């Protein structure tokens, strides 16, 4: 089953989308299989990381900014090359195992939509696949 969700983002940030992905898995009715979360944008990404301490994703943004700063020699006319690079480094999708109807995430793991070039109206897909 394929589900689509929308969200509105601010400038840069990690949005916890775990509840939406859980909802998609529940609606699909699958008990065992996999779930792929896919971001169809070139300046946003999907990742799994710490869900308890919001400082972790805050620090990830700082680290990404340091690793991939905007540079004068970039040629992309839209002026958001750093956001494109961050999106590719984090990746457009994650796959999570569905076990007994639930996402097999670790206790401290959450699924995040990562915005690197907002504010924008975004969407992402969740595809569930039965074993
Ligand atoms: Zn661009």
Describe the structure.
The protein has one domain (2-130): Jelly Rolls (Sandwich). The mean pLDDT is 97. It is built from 3 helices and 8 strands, in the order ββαββααββββ. It is an alpha+beta fold and 131 residues long. The protein is elongated, with a radius of gyration of 15 Å. It has a 5-stranded antiparallel β-sheet with strand order 1-8-3-5-6, with helices on one face.
Could you say what the CATH topology is called? Jelly Rolls
What gyration radius follows from the Cα positions, in whole Å?
15 Å
Shape: elongated
End-to-end CA span: 13 Å
Kindly report the spatial arrangement of strands forming the biggest sheet: 1-8-3-5-6
Number of helices: 3
Helix content: 25-40%
Give a quick set of tags describing it.
single chain; 131 residues; alpha+beta; Jelly Rolls; 3-stranded antiparallel beta sheet; 3 helices; 27% helix
